[in-house]
Amino acid sequence: MRLVAWWALISSTCAPVLLVAGFTTATLLEEPGYNPVTQTISVLAAGGRSGYWVFTGTLIAVGASYVATAWGLHAAKPAGRLCLAGGGVAAILLTVFPAPRTGGSLSHGAVVGVGFTLLAVWPLLATRRGRRRAPWGLRFVPSVVVSGLMWVGAAWFLVEVEINGAAGVAERVVTSGQALWPVVVVASCLWHARRLARRRARLSVAGLQP
Fold first, then answer.
1. Which residues are CB-neighbours of 68 under 8 A, at least 6 positions away?
2. Residue-level pLDDT at 101
3. By residue range, what is the domain housing residue 80?
4. Which residues are within 8 A (CB) of 180 and not within 5 positions of it... i.e. 6 or more apart?
5. Alpha carbon distance 55, 58 (integer Å)
C-alpha cells in the first residue's frame, strides 16, 4: 500500500487555504461592531451575521478536508487518522452548535474542546515510533514539538479570553497552525515515497550490472 494517496496533498492544502480565506472574507463582510482582534472566529458562524453563510460553508469544507486527508494518509497509525477525521467532524458540527452572538454556549464550547483536543493529539497518535525510515512528519520528535506548540497556543488563547485581550488573534493563529500540519505530514510522506522509489531504482540497476 502507498504511504499516502496523491489526492491527499490537495485535500490537506485546501484546509488552511479555505480556513484563512473563509474567516478573512467573513470578517470583511461583518458589520463594524465585530472586532477580529478580540472576538473569536466562531462568532462569525452565528445566525444573523453578515458573514454567516461564508464561514458556515468554510467550516464544512475544512472539516471535509480533514476527513479526506485522514482517509488518504495510509502511512499514519489508525488512531492518529481517526483523531484527524474526528477533528474534521467536530468542525462540521460547529455549524450545528454555533457560538451565540452574546454570552456563552456549553454545547459550542464542548464541540470546540473536543475538536481542538483531537487535532492536538493526532500528530502523536499518528507517529511511527522506532522506525528511523519513517516520513519526517510521522516521526516522534517533530510530532511532539508540534503537539506541544498546539497546547501552548491553546493556553495563550485561554489567557487572552480571561483578560479580554487578543482572543481572536490567538484563535486564528492556533487554528491555522492545526490546519497547516496535515499538509506538512502529507508532503513529507510523498517526498519519502519518492526517495524510496529512487533508491529501489538504483538498487535494481546495480543488480543488473555484471
1. 7, 8, 11
2. 64
3. 8-208
4. 16
5. 5
Tell me how crowded residue 17 is: count the other CB atoms within 10 A of its CB.
16
Q: At what angle do helices 140-162 and 167-208 cross, to 10 degrees?
A: 170
In one-letter notation, the amino acid at residue 185 is: V
pLDDT digits (tens, 9 = 90+) for 56-110: 999 999 999 999 999 999 999 999 999 999 999 999 999 988 877 665 678 888 9
* 1 falls within a domain: no
Evaluated on CA atoms 8, 182, 125, 81, the torsion sign reads: negative
Q: Is 12 exposed, middle or buried (0-12, 13-18, 19+ CB in 10 A)?
A: buried
How far apart, in whole angstroms, are the C-alpha atoms of residue 99 and residue 161?
14
Residue 2 covered by a domain: no
Query: How many domains would you assign to the chain?
Result: 1
DSSP codes, 195-208: HHHHHHHHHHHHHH
Contact 90, 65 (CB under 8 A): no
What is the pTM for the complete model shown? 0.90
And the C-alpha cell for 164? 479580554
Measured between alpha carbons, how far is 18 from 33 in angstroms, rounded to an integer?
24
